[in-house]
Design a protein that fits this description.
Shape: globular
InterPro entries: Mur-like_cat_sf, Mur_ligase_C, Mur_ligase_C_dom_sf, Mur_ligase_cen, MurD
Radius of gyration: 22 Å
CATH topology of the largest domain: UDP-N-acetylmuramoyl-L-alanine:D-glutamate ligase
EC number: 6.3.2.9
Pathway: Cell wall biogenesis; peptidoglycan biosynthesis
Strand order of the largest sheet: 7-8-6-9-10-11-12-13-14
Largest sheet: 9 strands, mixed
GO cellular component, one term: cytoplasm
Distance between the termini: 62 Å
Structural class: alpha/beta
Helix content: 25-40%
CATH superfamily of the largest domain: Mur-like, catalytic domain
Main location: cytoplasm
Strand content: 15-25%
Length: 446
């Protein structure tokens, strides 16, 4: 019996364990931290051997394959030991790929990937197809392959997940954007991060498709220097010359695939903003490649409600509107959020800095922001960037304190924006926890 070790007892690790057990592997799962009760229950139900609070090195390194959590860097000592021993170290995405014949749609990008994943799923579900979301959303890919197989999977893929692939390939790949993010994981070299994102297309053939944002030089520069085999479909907010393309013309999206043109008014979009126009371009192109009816695409775009924690209008309290953009974990995502503000803004930001250049936001801060509330353990770089730019800058250490401070500072018609531009792990479990705490605190305001 082939032995498989899994590092990490979260969503991806537990899903991989269930699939591996189903496929006849001898499975050992190890987590240096504690494992949540819900995951322990799943592991016990499937008779998986597991440990927490330590790594039993000899046991782990006796496997022929190791599946590691996306959160564990390749530089980790145990991972390096495994690689030196010749053990195959892969991601859960790579492992699950070997056990499904489903059509795979893979979406990656610094921003927009969650919205595009949800949009595509919404369209395909409305079309009556056998489809599910996985990767960074919902139950893990491996767990779904094991317990709830579908004909199509829409996979939201982070650069960390793509780092661990060897043979995995989606039939349709989408790169929504590549702007500096997670640079702490890539030796503070942007080019390393770009390379990681483009791994999504490395195994594609000429029967597969790559949809990409042609308005970003980080993407177009890479494509000019590197040959890819997949059929390319560029998307742009400007008219574009390419045999297959998606662009914006006046107030319409125009999708030209295999010389068949489909156009749709942006008025059909239930979610507004230039970034959502791009998200709609990518999603509609996938729908056309899968031969979904035009009416279904339009109806789906009209009914799509957006994604929780992404420019989510929470509540208006005494003429002050509160907006939850907790999913903005990098500068570029926050740029879109600030750019969409229409009234004087009290901006709540901060958390774990991933190599941000806060000065990129200075023009928008000057134009839109009246007060800044820092919400993090270390706010020194934010204070350095904006301390002399806004009249009021405060430091807080809890969401309740930050929201109360914002309400105290706000005047009629002001907007309070939680758009942290940072990861959440200093004060919160994840960005969802941060967003929910924000909404809870706002709803308790009188």
């Amino acid at each position: 019996m082939q032995k498989l070790s899994i590092l990490g007892g979260g969503e991806s690790g537990v899903g991989a364990a269930v699939l591996a057990k189903q496929q006849g592997y001898a499975v050992f799962l190890s987590d240096k931290s504690s494992i949540k009760p819900k995951y322990k229950a799943i592991l016990n139900t499937h008779n998986v051997n597991w440990e927490e609070g330590k790594h039993s090195e000899a046991e782990i390194l006796s496997a022929s394959t190791i599946i590691k959590s996306p959160g564990i860097p390749d530089e980790a000592e145990l991972v390096q030991k495994a690689i030196k021993k010749g053990i195959d170290v892969i991601s859960e995405i790579e492992f699950a790929y070997a056990f499904t014949q489903a059509t795979l749609i893979g979406i990656t990008g610094s921003n927009g990937k969650t919205t595009v994943t949800n949009m595509i799923y919404h369209i395909l579900k409305n079309a009556g197809l056998s489809v599910s979301m996985a990767g960074n959303v919902g139950d893990s890919f491996a767990y779904q392959v094991a317990t709830n197989p579908k004909e199509i999977y829409v996979l939201e893929l982070s650069s960390f997940q793509l780092d661990g692939i060897k043979t995995f390939k989606p039939h349709i790949a989408i790169i929504t954007s590549i702007t500096p993010d997670h640079l702490d994981r890539y030796n503070y070299e942007f080019k390393n991060y770009v390379e990681a994102k483009f791994r999504i297309t490395k195994n594609q053939t000429n029967k597969d498709y790559l949809i990409y944002n042609a308005d970003e030089s980080s993407i177009t520069n890479w494509l000019q220097k590197n040959k890819i085999i997949a059929q390319q479909i560029p998307m742009s907010i400007h008219p574009i010359l390419h045999e297959n393309s998606i662009c914006k013309k006046e107030n319409k999206l125009e999708i030209n695939i295999n010389n068949k043109i489909f156009s749709m008014s942006l008025d059909h979009l239930n979610v507004q903003g230039e970034h959502n126009a791009k998200n709609a371009m990518a999603s509609s192109a996938v729908a056309k490649l899968l031969k979904i009816r035009k009416d279904t695409i339009r109806e789906s775009m009209e009914s799509f409600q957006g994604v929780e924690h992404r420019l989510e209008n929470v509540k208006t309290v005494n003429k002050v509107s509160f907006i939850n953009d907790s999913k903005a974990t990098n500068i570029n995502a926050t740029y879109y959020a600030l750019d969409s503000m229409k009234h004087p803004t009290i901006w709540i930001l901060g958390g774990v800095d991933k190599g941000n250049d806060y000065h990129e936001l200075l023009p928008l801060v000057n134009e839109k922001v009246k007060s800044i509330i820092c919400l993090g353990v270390d706010n020194s770089r934010i204070i350095e960037a904006y301390g002399n730019v806004v009249d009021e800058l405060f430091e807080t250490t809890s969401m309740q304190e930050a929201v109360a401070m914002a309400m105290h500072l706000a005047e009629d018609n002001d907007q309070v924006l939680l758009s942290p531009a940072c990861a959440s792990f200093d004060l919160f479990e994840n960005y969802e926890d941060r967003g929910r705490q924000f909404k809870d605190a706002v709803r308790k305001l009188i």
